[in-house]
Amino acid sequence: MASEYLEHKLALLPDMPGCYLMKNINGKIIYVGKAKNLKNRVRSYFKSSHEGKTAKLVSEIADFETIVTSTDKEAFLLEITLIQKHRPYFNIKLKQGNGGYPYIKITNERDPQIKIVNTLLKDGAYYYGPYPNVYAADETVNFLQKVYPLRRCNGYQGRPCLYYHMGQCLGPCFKEVPKEEYDKQIKKIKSFLNGNVDSAKKLLTKRMQQAAEKMEYERAAEIRDQIKYIEITVEKQKIISNDNTPRDIFNYYMDKGWLSIQIFFIRQSRLMKREKRLFPIINDPDEEMVSFIAQFYQQKNQLLPKEILVPNTLPTDVISHVVEDVPVRTPQRGQKRDLLNMAGTNAQLVLEEKFRLMELDESKTTGAMKELTDAMGIAPGHRIEAFDHSHIQGTDIVSAMVVFEDGQPNKNMYRKYKSKTVDHADETASTKEVIRRRYSRLLKEHADMPDLILMDGGEIQMNAAKDVLVNELGLNIPVGGMVKNDHHQTADLLFGDADTPLHLDPKSQGFYLLQRIQDEVHRFAITFHRKVHTKNTLTSRLDAISGVGPKTRNKLLRKFGSLKKISDASEQDIRNLGISETVAKTIKFSLGKIGKSSDSSE
């Protein structure tokens, strides 16, 4: 049921297309949607029953606002812009980049060259890919440079470069190469990269035979290996199309509020790469798919194909309009239709596997976050950030932060901190420093704040964190203090102005989540501290040796990694790093006791 405030706002909604922004109790935008009719769409959230992710969204909506547009297409484009700007929790979020897949590039310059790149630029160059791995792309470029050379040198230098003598450069290093000669080679390269490899194999076979007739057997063997490379690397994937059109294929499967998406990348007449995505969704799956495809091609390094294939439930004209008028079609028969169906089948299999894995973990994670927020009497949330400190007798002081989202660790968001202002054991000072550094940065970057902060250290760290948040930064983020018993195990959670124990049920999901968070942040802090302490110990021992300066010390650490391994190394091994005989002998003498003490302890 909507609150009285929301009921008034619902009554004022217009019968027009546009976008709507749902907000939680803290005014944070948690979902952005678009509608042909704002009145009908927004009211449906509060006048119908829901389940899954939609039900979670509705339970957190405290307010909303709308933006009216002239057409449905305008609303669609605005929705993409708003999603990218606000990154709402309940919207589909795409990772930036293309997952590290390389491209082959033929540069657009007077003396062009062929190279491997990871970034797509609008520079008039020809791009091919993405390739499934760096090795395949690298081998392809090496092959093309030998068979269809362009430029491999840095340009004119008054004399032929080594690559020219090897037949892998057309010679702009000492002469002007006609543009027509480059164009001829580029035409052959483009044909090869589009899948036409027969002519290259025939050319190589002829060269191999000529080399053999001249008794140049090493050269013949090298060419034979190049032919084998084409057969193994370039032709290893089955031809799945009758034309060389670069095309992307999108299909999906929807069940239980989850959307599973499969993307096939057809390049050189082959299925070059596949991507899969899984999202819990709010709206109709067709609308979510259109939004996904539009965002997909706005990512950095995402090369547009010559054709996009989608199922018949999606509006091809709308998709084409937002992806720079690339043709978008729904195949009715033949190989393209089979590929589209295969993508749909794979999407279904991936989602069914996801459900099986979710069932295995459901008993431990479902509702855990809500149990904690309910026990603390705060608004429902999704992200917890937890902190802990570590040191040895006040030295090498470090802090660590872990992040849990909906009961699961998000290790990409973990952070480590070396103390800058505290040089002795002081829990309050260490807490204030790390909280100040973390959240002043988030404020500066206008980034999302967590829904809950947990401190591993009880009321001392808890109150120090609240002091910085409220009195210095003006933030009102709930803070709890995790406490342990005499056996150093999770015991309870402190919360509130009076640091009151909540007495959580040890068998509850909320307590289990608290236990996982406390164990994880402690593990992360201890691991980081050990690395810092070990590095500092190694550094100090090496710095104490006469003749060992920062450069020599770094050479030793990079090569051997520990004092024991440096001690076990021979004098010649140390001298091989460019260290003088005198210093090498000094190092061996100074560290000799380490090896002896290690042997005796065993």
What attributes characterize this protein structure?
RuvA_2-like; five-stranded mixed sheet; single chain; 5 domains; 602 residues; excision nuclease; DNA damage; flat; Nucleotidyltransferase, domain 5; 47% helix; eight-stranded mixed sheet; disordered C terminus; GIY-YIG endonuclease; alpha+beta; SOS response; 19 strands
What do these coordinates show?
By secondary structure, the protein is α+β, with helices and mostly antiparallel strands. It has 5 domains: 83 residues, GIY-YIG endonuclease (3-Layer(aba) Sandwich); 132 residues, no CATH class; 115 residues, 2-Layer Sandwich (Nucleotidyltransferase, domain 5); 163 residues, Nucleotidyltransferase, domain 5; 58 residues, DNA polymerase, domain 1 (Orthogonal Bundle), CATH 1.10.150. The protein contains 20 helices and 19 strands. The strands form 4 sheets. Strands 12, 13, 14, 15, 16, 17, 18 and 19 form an 8-stranded mixed β-sheet that branches. Strand 17 and strand 18 form a beta hairpin. Helix 5 packs across helix 9, helix 13 packs across helix 16 and helix 14 packs parallel to helix 15. The radius of gyration is 31 Å and the shape is flat. The N and C termini lie far apart (71 Å). The C terminus is likely disordered. It is found in: Cytoplasm. Keywords: Cytoplasm, DNA damage, DNA excision, DNA repair, Excision nuclease, SOS response. The UvrABC repair system catalyzes the recognition and processing of DNA lesions. UvrC both incises the 5' and 3' sides of the lesion. The N-terminal half is responsible for the 3' incision and the C-terminal half is responsible for the 5' incision.
